[in-house]
Amino acid sequence: MNTNKSVPASTITVYDSGLIRLRQYGPMSRRSFGYGLAGAGAAAMLGLPGASAVADANVAYMGWQDYDTGLNVDDWLETNGITLEPTYIGTNEEIIAAGTAGGVGTLDLCTPAVIYLDIYEQADILEPLDLDRIPNWNLLFPELRELIKVRSDNTVLALPFQWGDVPLMYNAEVITEPPASWNDLTKPEYVGKTALVYDVMGIMVHTPMFVTGTRTPTLLSHDELDATIDWLIKFKKEHALTICNTYGDLAALFASGEVLIAPAWTPTVTWAGADAPDLKWVAPEEGMLVFSDVFSMFKDAPNKDLNYEILNHSLSPEVQAHTANLIMTAVTVEDAVPLLDDLPRSLYKYDNIAEWFATSGGPFPGWPLDPPEGTASFDEILEGWERFVSA
Asked: pLDDT per residue over 158-209, tens digit each?
């Protein structure tokens, strides 16, 4: 990772980060992960170990690539005799499928997103974590700690590990006046020079906010959902150059100058490369997605004591900073900020996280599987998304 320049918070310079993880958030629903519909075949497909295959010091990890790399800072895993056996994911859905198809009782750790925790909870695949065994919980920024519900028995389902956002990114060499609204995406001068990523979470949070004016984008009326999908279809047909598979693909289009403005996960600026145009971003006035990825333990995990050691370690400043320096996400522990390289420190508003969250309108609660009367369920959100994709 090239961090040989100091980057002021008000200026974003493009770097060649050398990152290898180009993530995409995929859809999950009661239908798609099946509550048993996945069957035993999913476990075989994902290569899940059997209960007898997990040795005492072998911990089965299923999550984002490079989150596990941070855990081994200063050879911590080797020093403690722990071997991680990773299965890397491309979507949250893969964790759900694994957990409901034989992973419970055989897998140890996973990395959900907060916005999907209610779905994980209803699937009943996560182990409640005893906070008395995780003293580093108290190191978390208060704003991140508040994302996780602490139960009456002092347990939680997840530990905030990293966070990030999906603002409006633009080529500042061409667009000299910073955009203020998501509606700038539809300006005539950007026809064929904008794009989206196939990212349900990234798109289906901010789009309802500016299309309908809602401040509760994960709790939409059916009319609000229809209006959102209608806008996306119109944008796709009349404005977008393409719909990208990943943010890495979007970074390449920014780098070539083919795309001038688009919703983009913040690390996209680093993937565009050192020769790319100057990329900057704003939090539009309507709000935007802010998310947090977490560490959780599978229910009935075979290495529970070891898992608690790892989970507490995940909230150490050293692990937090190592991960953020590698993949440009944001740390959840305040003491990690001084350990960050200049570039990853400049990407996020550590000086006032509460204000940044208030500006964005988030983070947001998850989509409901069983919504209040008159509002859309998560399955209906996905049906609308499929209507957009197939249009």
From this structure: 999 999 999 999 999 999 999 999 999 999 999 999 999 998 888 999 999 9
Q: Exposure of 272 by Cβ count < 10 A (0-12 exposed, 13-18 middle, 19+ buried)? A: buried
CA separation for the pair 290, 165 (Å, rounded): 4
C-alpha distances (whole Å) from 222 to each of 211, 258, 360 are: 14, 35, 23
Buried b / exposed e over 183-220, threshold 16 CB at 10 Å, is: ebbeeeebeebbbbbbbbbbbbbbbbbbbbebeebbbb
- Cβ-contact 268, 197 below 8 angstroms: no
pLDDT for residue 378: 86
Tell me how crowded residue 20 is: count the other CB atoms within 10 A of its CB. 11
**Residue 294's CB: how many other CB atoms inside 10 A?**
27
The pLDDT, as a whole number, for residue 40 is: 33
Identify the bridge partners of residue 84 per DSSP, sorted by sequence position. 59
User: 390 CB contacts (<8 Å, ≥6 apart)?
Assistant: none
Distances (CA, A) of 276 to 12, 241, 270: 12, 19, 10
**How far is 244 from 252, CA to CA, in rounded Å?**
10
User: How far, in whole angstroms, is CA 163 from its chain's centroid?
Assistant: 7
**For all residues of the chain together, what is the average pLDDT?**
85
- pLDDT at residue 42, rounded to an integer: 38
Helix axis angle for 304-314 and 317-327, nearest 10°, is 70
pLDDT band at 31 (very low <50, low <70, confident <90, very high): very low
Select from 357, 338, 198, 356 the least CA-distant residue to 262. Answer: 198
